[in-house]
Amino acid sequence: MTRKQFLATLACTRSVLAQAGPGGSVWAVHDGEKVEKDDLHNPLKTRNSAWDGRTIKLFAGRNEVVAFQVIVEASGAGIRNLRVSLPELKQRGGRGRLAYVPPSDDPSNSVGRPIQIFAENYMYVPTPGTASWIYRAGTPGAPPKPTGWKPVQLVPENARAGRGGFPIQVAPAGNQPIWIEIYTARDLPPGIYDGAVAVSADNLTAKLPVTIEVFDFLLPDENSMHAMLYYDSSQPELYMGRNLDPEFHRFAHRHRVELVNAYSPVSAKEHAGRFRGDDFTRAQGYEGPGEGVGNRIMPMSFYGPPRGFEDRPTAWERSDAWMKFVTQNFPKALTFLYMPDEPSASSYGRINLIGENVHSNPGPGGKLPMFVTSGYQPRIENAIDIWCSGPRGYNIARAIEERKKGRDYWFYNGGRPHGPAIAIESPATDPRAAIWACFKHDIRVYFYWHSVHWRHNSQKQGERNQDVWANPITFDNRGQPNKNSFGIGYGDGVLMYPGEEKVHPEQDRGIRGPCATIQLANFRRGLQDHQYLTLARKLGLNTLVSETLQAVVPKVFSDAGETVGFAENGDVYETARYKLAKAIAAAAHGQ
């Protein structure tokens, strides 16, 4: 591009929305930020790791999903008709090409669609959250800006008009971010790819150049750790009018996470393709990371133990039958029996009884792991095989000791400042930080308590069928007798939203499946980062791995102080990822 062409493009970009005076502009940022609706003076507008003020610059390995945001800022007149497109990316000096294909009404169908485009939907957070297990408002560990208009859902471009589908209207002096994802296929030739994002606002247009550097290394289809998200089929059935399990599982797989619930031999056989990988093939509408690779986590129970395990003969019989079934049919599966959830001391006797009944089994059932959502408790230690602690209760030294004893130690949910907070008002990178923390402390499974918590928890007083597109409060236990339990959480337990809405039809997006969130996308980003770190460690780049961990997650869990000890902006993560990418590519090819 010549200087004259550049100045013309820049002038057009600056004026594309200036229909009623100054103020409109278009700029870009990576996927690790949340740009609020009324934030017209964001410092990243001038420059960030994905934007130099002129060009959008990305990078990736092969078999990776990367994303960026185009921020369209409306002037005083607003915008009546906004469209954004990225037709293609062509390899510089080669034949490689990534071509846009319009979406179908099924958002989980990713075949032949390496470029996907979404509009971000805003939700208003009026007050800081009051659920102290997420964060304590007003403390140094709270999110930097807990209130305001927060971008949350990623709505496919073909949604209903007025509900996120193109064309979009933008209010005067407001932002509208457009989220663009790019999948770099396994066989994509490495090199530099060029394209341009076209922005059309009413009668004005602009183009933003895009380059993506594809490094010559491959992210494995097998995850280097597991993220399990609880999933309840009844919620989509209620809100969307039918069972959509295949769509939701494909959608989750594209984000490298697993949707989990309890299985029986009957249900596991019924969904064998989910674990063998048949459900994640092009024949089933799936293309992307983990193609042909099955899920791994197959719990025997969830949110509590099955009935009958308090009786030893029954416990032996049932654990034997289950472990024989899993070993013979799904030998790679990771299974466990879920003890009472977040147990108090009053449950310890039952936990010890069940643990003793299973562990005393001389047959195959004696190897059924006992899982508990609790930090280490000496009163039940002999009953537990897998501890799963929140970040505040995660003692790093104790986890190391437990692993030496043959037990495992996972972590779940979040809680600032010891770990991230998976909430609407938290920085976009909080879910990403959770996975970095897992790598640093050798945690092989992360657990999030719900993915589609659309119908309010049972503690909620009054109406439980929440309008999740309109009300950001998704956990509410105000009015309970225990004063310490009073609290609300914004977006807690909701990583996907209903694309169709039968309960609140005015919110229907006309999308036959789930809509993602910035939180879910950043979990995927973290899981891909985990693969970068794993590859680097396997290649002997230990000094670089240590340096990047120190830059991104210097203090988490029991190392944390009163302030947050992990990075809160995407530039830090992207800088670390780029260093890793260059080093991995060089080491992999002996350079």
Described by strand count, sense and barrel closure, the largest sheet is: 7 strands, antiparallel
The fraction of residues assigned to DSSP E strands is 15-25%
Stretches where pLDDT falls below 50 for ≥5 residues?
A: 1-23
Number-wise, the strands total: 23
Q: Could you give the distance between the termini? A: 32 Å
Please characterize this protein's 3D structure.
By secondary structure, this protein is an alpha/beta fold. The protein folds into two domains: 3-218, Immunoglobulin-like (Sandwich); 226-576, no CATH class. The protein is 24% helix and 23% strand. The chain is built from twelve helices and 23 strands. The chain has helices at residues 3-15, 234-240, 245-254, 265-270, 272-276, 312-329, 348-359, 396-404, 430-440, 518-538, 542-552, 570-588; strands at 25-30, 56-62, 64-73, 79-85, 88-91, 97-99, 115-125, 148-156, 168-170, 175-184, 191-201, 204-218, 226-230, 258-260, 337-338, 370-372, 386-389, 408-412, 445-448, 473-476, 488-490, 497-498, 514-517. The chain has a seven-stranded antiparallel sheet. Helix 9 (430-440) links the parallel strand 18 and strand 19 (445-448). Helix 11 (542-552) packs antiparallel against helix 12 (570-588). The protein is globular, with a radius of gyration of 24 Å. The two termini are 32 Å apart. Mean pLDDT is 94; it is low at 1-23.
